[in-house]
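Table S2 (continued). Query chain:
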Amino acid sequence: MQQETEYGQQAFTPSAEDLAGVEAWFAEYDALAARGAVREIADLAVFPLNLATDVPGGFAAVRQWDREEFIQVMTEVMGGGTGDMEMKSVRTPHFLTSNLVLVETEATVVVEGRRQSMRYADLLVRTTDGWAFQTMVQGGWGHGWPPATRG
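Corresponding output:
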C-alpha cells in the first residue's frame, strides 16, 4: 500500500500477503540450503549477484558473481547442506517498494557444540517468476578480496 509522506514521496506498507510471500521465499531457501541444493538455490537469484562484505582488519569489499561462481563458492561453503546445523534466524523485512525488500537476518548457528551469531542482509527483488535475491551483504567474506575503492 503506497502512502504519501511529508516530502511527497511514496512510502510502501506491506500487506500480510506481501510479508507471507517473503517468508515463503525464505522457507524454500532454507529447505534447499538444508539439503545443500546449491543449483536450485541459484535458481532463486538474479545474476550477476552483488556481494558486499569486508576485508578483516581492513575495509569494505564488493564483487559480482555470475551463476557459475556462485555455485562454486556456495558448494564449498554449504558442502552437503546445513541440515546437521542447528540454526535459528529472525528475519526483519524492510520493504522499500512492493518490488524491493531488504531483509535483515539475525542468526545463531550451532555446529558441533560451537555457537556463532551473525547478522546479514539480502536484497530481494520481485521478478516475473516471484521473489529472487540479488544482493547479499555480510561481513567477513572478504579474505583475499581487494578493498573497495571509490570512483
